[in-house]
Amino acid sequence: MKFTVVGDGDQVTGRLQISSGPVQVVDQFLLTGDRPLAAGRSPENPILLDGVKISRIHCEFARGLTGWEINDNASRNGVVVNAQRMAHHELSTGDIIALGDVELAYWDVAPPVEERLTKPTASPESADEEIIDLGALASEEEEIIDLSAEALEDDLLEVIEDPPPIAAPARSPQKTPPKAN
Q1: Is a pLDDT exceeding 70 seen at residue 74?
Q2: CB atoms closer than 10 angstroms to residue 71
Q3: Whole-angstrom distance, CA of residue 93 vs CA of residue 14
Q4: pLDDT value at residue 20
Q5: 98 and 89 Cβ atoms separated by less than 8 Å
Q6: Which residues contact 83 (CB under 8 A, 6 or more apart)?
Q7: Measuring CA to CA, which residue among 17, 16, 18, 54 is closest to residue 37?
Q8: Residues 107-122: pLDDT tens digits?
Q9: Model confidence at 65, in pLDDT bands (50, 70, 90)?
Q10: d(Cα 120, Cα 117) in Å, to the nearest integer?
Q11: Which residue pairs, CB below 8 angstroms and at least 24 apart, start in 34-41?
Q12: What percent of the chain has pLDDT above 70?
């Protein structure tokens, strides 16, 4: 199976696999980065597709907050996702995309949690969110907590080997019963 990595990132976050249509140069496109990726017949497109019903710049794949999205570029034959023509669609694993006479299947490839952490903007009515740069939040003097299974196991073993002292429970003063006269 032939594939090509497209985008400006170093981590694959989505995958497109050609499932039917004319023979293509590659069978799969591994999506990386955050920049939009144009798809169509033009050789300048990162996602180069050959087919008589495909426009030069048929559509673009872009990274949204929840994953990859597809946007039609006013192509003659449109973008069809799961048998419905759409101008825009947020992609999910298993989506079938028809671009002219080429059919592709889409799969999410989950990024690390840190990449997708977001914080709400000042306006609660706004749907916009800003991605937090975790590296910028940590200074040289702050300790970054490692929550990986390996680190947690090491911490647990350290406690088992050298348990902290256990303080005796505080006793409440006992009242002596009154003496009977």
Answers
A1: yes
A2: 15
A3: 9
A4: 87
A5: no
A6: 96
A7: 16
A8: 998 654 444 444 444 4
A9: confident
A10: 10
A11: 34/7, 34/8, 34/9, 34/63, 35/7, 35/8, 35/63, 36/60, 36/61, 36/62, 36/63, 36/71, 37/6, 37/7, 37/61, 37/62, 38/73, 39/99, 40/73, 40/75, 40/99
A12: 60
Residues 6+ apart with CB under 8 A from 181: none
pLDDT of residue 24 exceeding 80, the answer is: no
Give the Cα separation of 57 and 36 in Å (integer). Answer: 12
Dihedral-angle region of residue 82 (phi above 0 means left; psi in -120 to 50 means alpha; beta otherwise) = left
Asked whether the predicted pLDDT for residue 167 surpasses 70, the reply is no
pLDDT computed for residue 1 by the predictor: 66
Q: Residue 114 pairs with which residues in a beta bridge?
A: none
Selection from 88, 87, 81 nearest residue 105 by Cα: 81
Q: Hey, what amino acid is at 35?
A: R
- Indicate the residue type of 177: P
Structure tokens at 19: 């499932």
